[in-house]
Structures are given as C-alpha cells and as structure tokens.
C-alpha cells in the first residue's frame, strides 16, 4: 500500500471518528439541542454511522429497578398550569404514557 493511500485512509478514519464523537456527544444533550443539530446534518451522514446503536447507548439512562423516577415539570394539556412529579410522591401512583393514541 502506498504512503499516500495510508495517509488518506488515516485522514478518513480520523474524520469518521470525529464525526461519530460529535454526534454521540450531541445525542447526550437535551432533545431540543440534538434536534437543532440534526436538522442541519446532510443526509449522507446517516448511512455512514451506526445511529441506532449510538442512540441506544446515549439514551439508555441510569435508572435501575426500584429507583425513584427523576423529578420533572410538565405543562397541563390546556397549558394553564404545570404539574411537578415530586408533588405526587408518597401520595398516589402515577402512570406516564408516552406517545399518541390518536
């Protein structure tokens, strides 16, 4: 293998690892930030990186069975008030539904 080819492959590998590291670090950020960055990403990037594996690793969380859910605040459906999860602690069970049922 020629020296120029080796250097070219090394440069490509460094660029690929840098891009993967940047996107993985971005996946660790809040969804709003991740969405802003990914909305500007060219489509060619998606087949170049293992997005599903990276996303699964970045979003796996640190909760274990028996841990308390992290506290959060959500707006009510009418947007007139906010609900704080910790306000229900030790009072009544809370069921969280993610997604849409429409």
Walkthrough of the structure:
Helices cover 45% and strands 6% of the residues. It has helices at residues 3-27, 31-39, 45-48, 51-58; strands at residues 73-75, 82-84. By secondary structure, it is mostly helical. Strand 1 (73-75) and strand 2 form a beta hairpin. The model has no long low-confidence stretch (mean pLDDT 89). Strands 1-2 form a two-stranded antiparallel ribbon. The chain contains four helices and two strands; from the N terminus they run H-H-H-H-E-E.
Write the layout of secondary structure elements.
Blueprint: H1 3-27, H2 31-39, H3 45-48, H4 51-58, E1 73-75, E2 82-84
Antiparallel strand pairs: 1-2
Key words describing this protein structure:
mainly alpha; two-stranded antiparallel ribbon; 2 strands; single chain; elongated; 102 residues
In short:
The chain has 102 residues and is mostly helical. It has 4 helices and 2 strands; from the N terminus they run H-H-H-H-E-E.
Distance between the first and last residues' Cα:
59 Å
Q: Which spans of ≥5 residues are poorly predicted at pLDDT below 50? A: none
Principal-axes geometry comes out as: elongated
Number of helices, where a helix is a run of at least 4 consecutive DSSP H or I residues: 4
Total beta-strand segments: 2
Helical content band: 40-55%
Structural class assignment: mainly alpha
Strand content: 5-15%
Output the strand order for the largest sheet.
Answer: 1-2
How big is the Rg? 21 Å
Biggest sheet overview = 2 strands, antiparallel
pLDDT average, as an integer?
89
SSE ordering: HHHHEE
